[in-house]
Amino acid sequence: MHAFDVLGDPVRRRILELLAGGEQSSGEVTAVIQREFGISQPAVSQHLRVLRDNGFAQVRAEGTRRLYAVDAAPLREVDLWLEPFRRFWEQHLDALATELARGKRERRRSEALNGQADGATSRETNEATSRGTSEAASRGTSEAASRGTSEAASRGTSEAASRGANEVTKKEMDEEMDEETKGT
After folding, report:
1. What is the model's pLDDT at position 177?
2. In angstroms, rounded to a whole number, what is the distance separating the alpha carbons of residues 69 and 6?
3. CB 36 within 8 A of CB 55
4. What is the rounded CA–CA span in Å between residue 29 and residue 141?
5. Which helix H or strand E contains 133, and what residues bound it?
6. Model pTM?
């Protein structure tokens, strides 16, 4: 069976994902796969056998348990086969990473500004309480609420802008990918 035939099945891909996290017993794998895919234990065992027979998984006995682990050799072969195609997506992934970093930076900046505003709100409330004037306390709360609303609106705007930039980037990436595909 060819590597892509083995990897073409979503159940086998999920089993490999589970095993990539570390060695697991057949019972542990079966429990997850049954829950996620609703297939029987014999069907899961058959998928494990396909992975084992094609070199994607290794098995060892530990008492009465059978422990499975990923065998990376066939995955390296797949990786080598994919190498010539990386140029089609690496540039786009780099652009996406840049946009994600920009969005995170904006979020941190916004959160830092919100943290400063929260401190000011607490000071105003404490001052109003210590003066004992309910009018000042009310004014502090209103001002804080107003500030909180405008900050939330600002935060929503920057998050929307970040989302919009990511959506534009994805659209641009798709268009560029289409152009590159037509060119080859």
Report:
1. 52
2. 16
3. no
4. 55
5. none
6. 0.49
